[in-house]
Amino acid sequence: MILLTIILLACITFGTRYLFLEGRLPIRLGPNLKHLLSYSGPAVLTAITAPILFVHNQQLDTAADNPYLWGAAVAILAAYKTRSVYWTIGLGMLVYILVAY
After folding, report:
1. Rounded to whole angstroms, how far apart are CA atoms 92 and 65?
2. 39, 62, 75, 76: which is deepest, by most CB within 10 A?
3. Is residue 27 within 8 Å of 15, Cβ to Cβ?
4. Ranges of each domain in the chain
């Protein structure tokens, strides 16, 4: 049953991506739907990173010694100031490592 679910989800994912990425098909998205889909990236990123930042040992962790929070805060600041992916990742990781160890 699990294998069948994985195969069906893979088919659905491939089908939806193929429909919109294949240039020869006459399917086009309207401007409203394109605008709505522009929020999916930040929403997915938030859904992935929030549990990593705030949940440790099945408990909410907002303490000042949480290295994930410090790394994320510096990464956000670096992204805002530098607009560089490399500086953002580098400074965020550096602060995380310094606080964690």
Report:
1. 15
2. 75
3. no
4. 1-38, 40-101
